[in-house]
Design brief:
Blueprint lengths: L1 H8 L3 H22 L7 H15 L11 H6 L39 E3 L5 H4 L3 E5 L4 E4 L5 E6 L3 H10 L2 H7 L5 E5 L7 E2 L12 E2 L1 H14 L2 E6 L6 H15 L3 E6 L6 H4 L8 H18 L5 E6 L3 H11 L3 E8 L2 E2 L10 H4 L2 H20 L4 E6 L2 E2 L10 H16 L4 E5 L18 H13 L4 E3 L2 E4 L3 E7 L5 E7 L6 E7 L6 E7 L10 E2 L15 E6 L3 E6 L3 E7 L1
Parallel strand pairs: 1-23, 2-20, 4-5, 4-15, 5-8, 6-7, 8-9, 9-10, 10-11, 11-13, 12-14, 13-15
Antiparallel strand pairs: 2-17, 3-16, 16-18, 18-19, 19-25, 20-24, 21-22, 21-23, 21-25, 23-24
């Protein structure tokens, strides 16, 4: 140690002071490193050593030229910044912002794999912390939850579009093996005419060829379907005949038969008198059930496909729950003529308060289904009742909302969801009658990519100062899928995904558009659907810091699907 003593003796007083403070600074940094309070790469360590070397061995010319405070004011000490503490992030339940701002982000540089790179200012200043314990597995991911609904009157449009090219069917295949629901308002206007004209100009009748061609289409895309029979025009005998034909031709491709659509609205729509109530409906449903099962007791039934009226639902379930393989309800969070909490605006659609209201509604209805041990489904959903709202339902905001909606509903125990309507001309369509996809489609695709391998729901802990949500799936393939959705219209989300399990590789696919109000230009994984209907994403790699922290930045109105393995 003699060399060190001699070295110190040869320094001036000012240099000795600088040396002492530098050693203390380095010691403090190393202590922090050993406690794992900061993340520091080898390049960062070299920066420290180089800086200290320059300070200690600088050629000072006299005591008056050496100012220790000025020397250290120029020393880079940003490496002392620690990772954000959850206590610094205040959860917020309501979020401001009404403008539509969005841009395509640049993925964080670096190859996949664990890294000890010094955190950037974004990483150390995260405003969203998502804490995940992958061992805390929850509900199983239900099969065919990410489905589509269409009007009975739109069947011929679907078949016509499919006959033109293979592009149309490919759009469905991109979503995996899901459920197509046939019904809607036109289902209560469609009579059964087995030998009638195929796809007449006024589609008020269903014939055998139409049924056969639909079954062919559903088999081609690898889906299953539910079929609604007409209750608006009361005819148990004819509808039993129709249900039997569909069941016999479809076999296992048919999931269930539904009887009627939103019967709670029958009086308003002129199908029934003003005295029609839950008891009246249940009596009619029972007559249909008797007629259908009288022909073939193996035909599966579901019900009651209504909206809004909980007492009706309770009356029906108390009587018929044992006859059902699925209980259905329709839920649109906003209305085309709605105001206040039901207003069809982008800001409202993406607000957390709206999603909280949706959760409350789901819990109310699902509680009845659970009481009778019947799986609960949202058999008809979309953003805005009444055909949607142009500029909202067909905007990119609908993609962000729908992805968040499906994850949220699944976390509440919902087993099936069907987004209405395809081919019917409404502004909230995912796929229109010409085979074009709209922003909503990408929300369904986003969810599918996170759940394609099945698995289990993981409920993360989220601390955020922006309107940002997160949903986590531990896939059947062992990978962790983290969906991060920034629904904030003004604020960027700087996100830290922190896991209790170490991972070595991370990749990300961003779902983005020019703005929340954009009706085109949507990409997911850097790609839109191609002219032939295929979708070919290119995931970007992300760094994992110390095996537990993955960072990314989301612009306002943007989402990301992160995969950890």
């Amino acid at each position: 140690m003699e060399w060190l003593k001699n070295f110190v003796k040869q320094r001036t007083t000012s240099q000795k002071i600088v040396l002492l403070v530098s050693v203390l600074l380095l010691s403090s940094a190393m202590l922090l490193l050993s406690a794992k309070q900061i993340v520091l790469a080898e390049s960062g360590k070299q920066t420290i050593l180089t800086t200290l070397q320059k300070i200690i061995f600088s050629n000072t010319k006299g005591k008056n030229n050496t100012n220790t405070s000025s020397v250290f004011s120029n020393t880079p000490v940003s490496f002392l910044l620690s990772k954000p503490s959850p206590s610094l992030l205040t959860p917020s339940e309501t979020y401001g912002g009404s403008s539509s701002i969005g841009s395509t982000p640049t993925p964080m540089p670096g190859a996949s794999g664990t890294s000890n790179t010094t955190p950037t200012s974004t990483q150390t200043g995260s405003n969203v912390l998502i804490s995940i314990n992958p061992s805390a597995v929850g509900l199983s991911v239900p099969p065919q939850i990410d489905g589509i609904s269409t009007e009975t009157g739109a069947i011929c449009k679907i078949l016509s579009q499919d006959s033109l090219s293979s592009t149309y069917s490919q759009l469905y295949k991109n979503l995996g093996s899901e459920m197509l629901r046939i019904g809607g308002n036109s289902g209560d206007q469609a009579t059964w005419s087995p030998s009638g004209t195929y796809c007449p100009t006024s589609p008020d009748a269903i014939d055998e060829q139409e049924v056969n061609n639909l079954i062919t289409f559903v088999n081609k895309i690898g889906w299953k379907f539910t079929w609604g029979v007409d209750l608006g025009t009361y005819d148990p005998t004819d509808m039993a005949s129709e249900a039997d034909y569909v069941y016999n031709e479809a076999g296992s491709t048919l999931y269930a038969i539904a009887i009627g659509n939103e019967p709670n609205n029958f009086a308003n729509e002129g199908y029934r008198t003003s005295g029609y109530n839950g008891t009246s409906f249940t009596t009619e449903w029972q007559a249909y059930k008797t007629a259908i099962l009288g022909i073939n007791p193996s035909i599966p039934l579901m019900g009651d496909d209504q909206s809004q009226n909980v007492p009706w639902y309770s009356t029906f379930m108390s009587s018929e729950a044992s006859s059902l393989i699925l209980s259905g309800y329709h839920l649109y969070p906003t209305a085309s003529t709605g105001t206040g909490p039901n207003a069809p605006t982008i800001a409202n659609l993406l607000s957390q308060s709206l999603m909280n209201n949706t959760i409350g509604t789901i819990q109310t209805w699902e509680a009845v289904a659970k009481e009778y041990n019947v799986p609960f489904a949202l058999t008809e959903v979309n953003s805005t009742a009444g055909g949607g709202k142009s500029g909202v339902s067909n905007a990119f905001a609908s993609a962000l909302w729908s992805a968040d909606y499906i994850f949220t509903a699944m976390e509440q125990g919902v087993q099936r969801m069907n987004f209405h309507a395809v081919g019917g001309g409404a502004s909230y369509e995912a796929i229109d009658s010409s085979g074009n996809v709209h922003p909503l489609y990408y929300g369904l695709l986003f969810f599918h990519e996170a759940t394609a391998n099945g698995g289990n729901v993981i409920m993360p802990s989220i601390h955020a100062t922006t309107n940002t949500t997160a949903h986590v799936i531990l896939g059947g393939d062992g990978k962790l899928y983290v969906a991060v959705i920034n629904k904030d219209l003004t604020n960027t989300a700087t996100v830290d995904i922190r896991t209790t399990t170490n991972y070595s590789q991370a990749s990300v696919m961003y779902m983005t558009a020019p703005s929340a109000s954009s009706t085109s230009g949507v990409t997911f994984g850097g790609a839109s659907t191609a002219a032939n209907g295929t979708w070919s994403p290119t995931p970007s790699s992300l760094q994992i810091i110390n095996g537990t922290d993955t960072y990314l930045t989301l612009s306002p109105a943007e989402a990301a699907l992160v995969t950890l393995q």
